[in-house]
Specification:
Blueprint lengths: L8 H16 L8 H13 L13 E6 L6 E7 L26 H16 L8 E7 L7 H7 L6 E10 L6 E4 L2 E4 L1 E10 L3 E2 L9 H19 L6 E10 L5 E2 L2 E10 L2 H21 L3 E7 L5 E3 L1 H11 L4 E4 L10 H4 L4 E7 L18 H19 L1
Parallel strand pairs: 2-3, 2-4, 4-15, 5-14
Antiparallel strand pairs: 1-3, 5-15, 6-13, 7-11, 7-12, 8-10, 9-11
Helix pairs in contact: 1-3, 3-9, 5-6, 7-9
GO molecular function: metal ion binding; N-acetyldiaminopimelate deacetylase activity
Cofactor: Mn(2+)
Pfam family, one: M20_dimer
Length: about 375
């Protein structure tokens, strides 16, 4: 069969309707129960039976025949964010405080549309295609849960994408090798001795200690990491005390470290831990630090890149994209098998995670074509 399938308007129209429904009914990471039911229902209507995997939420389903060739996986995430929507869309979120502010409704609807298209050509597939509807991307748990459940078994390669508001519709952002950063999250508690604000000498002020740590930690990036090595250390939340005349006994702060190189990653983490340890010791205080597991850096496979670039150039404008220090748990898949991840331009004014974030539905033909035609080409490549 041909590697090029045109995406018909009726498929796009149904995808738009599906996205609008999912957008109006968002669910948080790990709580995508109704979204899971909806995806399952639509797949069954297409004659596609989901695999029986030990998953609480999320759906994995196959079409084709592994006896004819390799298995190629297509992945879309499906969770929403704890954000109060501030758009005036007719299909705005009906769940107060929960919003599809990262476009995962667009990703899920695109993959459902691709499943519809590819199912019609199932008899001619040169192998098997696996549809992966992944939960909990925003909390960095979903990919690991699906991997543990066996989603990557016998998979030769995996592809995915994310919408990109600052790219015009009709543009696909593309980059070989490093694309998105490794994500490390930290939570720190500085433990001092509380006292009256007028008698600081009788206590051990954790606010001063925490302030020193936050300020000094910035020198880790500027003075210990080469300017050519991308890295960020951000403290994003700090909390201590609850009134004006009491020095508290402890201070809490948390944040994130973003890197691309594993050696740099470990160096920044160690220097940050040393900064905390040495500063608290200087002020006679103690500390607790928790590292919350994040994603590795996302590195696209260069061999797949040649194929993907050739495929997308047939139906979209190809644009080289730069590194982004955002994280993406698709990286967990490509840490184990070859994979490729692109950005689909949606040409909208607000960035991910903004209460006014939107997706331009005109981007659907490009997203669906990416899934469909790239998967067909990869089947031929690995056959």
């Amino acid at each position: 069969m041909t590697d090029k399938i045109a995406i018909k308007q009726d498929v796009v129209t149904k995808a738009i309707k599906t996205r609008h429904y999912i957008h109006a009914h968002p669910e948080l990471s790990g709580q995508e129960f109704e979204t899971t039911k909806l995806i399952t229902k639509k797949l069954l209507e297409l004659g596609i039976t989901p695999l029986d995997l030990p998953l609480v939420t999320g759906v994995v389903a196959d079409i084709g025949d592994s006896n004819k060739g390799p298995t190629i996986a297509l992945r879309a995430d499906m969770d929403a964010l704890p954000i109060v929507e501030a758009t005036d869309l007719l299909y705005a979120s009906e769940t107060l405080g929960v919003m599809h502010a990262c476009g995962h409704d667009f990703h899920t609807s695109s993959l459902l549309a691709a499943a519809e298209v590819l199912k019609k050509h199932e008899d001619n597939l040169k192998g098997r295609i696996r549809f992966v509807f992944q939960p909990a991307e925003e909390t960095n748990h979903g990919a690991r849960e699906l991997i543990k459940a066996g989603t990557l078994k016998d998979v030769a390669a995996i592809i995915g994408f994310h919408n990109k508001p600052d790219l015009p519709v009709g543009t696909i952002g593309f980059k070989n090798e490093a694309l998105m950063a490794a994500v490390d999250q930290f939570a720190v508690r500085i433990i001092g001795t509380g006292t009256h604000a007028a008698a600081p000498q009788n206590g051990k002020d954790p606010i001063v200690t925490a302030s020193q740590i936050v300020a000094n930690a910035q020198a880790i990036i500027s003075r210990y990491i080469a300017p050519t090595d991308s890295a960020v250390l951000s403290v994003t939340h700090i909390q201590g005390g609850n009134t004006w005349n009491v020095i508290p006994s402890d201070v809490f702060f948390e944040g994130t470290i973003r890197t691309f190189d594993e050696t740099v990653r470990q160096k920044v983490k160690q220097l940050f831990a040393d900064t905390i340890s040495h500063t608290t010791a200087l002020y006679g205080q103690s500390f607790e630090i928790e590292w919350i597991p994040g994603t590795p850096a996302l590195y696209n496979d260069t061999d797949l890149g040649v194929i993907v670039k050739d495929v997308v150039s047939d139906f979209a404008k190809y644009q080289e994209t730069g590194l982004t220090l955002g994280g993406e748990d698709f990286a967990n898949y490509v840490h184990l098998i070859p994979g490729f991840f692109v950005f689909i331009g949606t040409g909208t004014p607000f960035e991910w995670h903004n209460p006014e974030f939107t997706v331009n539905d005109a981007a659907f033909p490009y997203a669906i074509a990416y899934y469909v035609n790239t998967s067909l080409r990869l089947l031929r490549h690995f056959n």
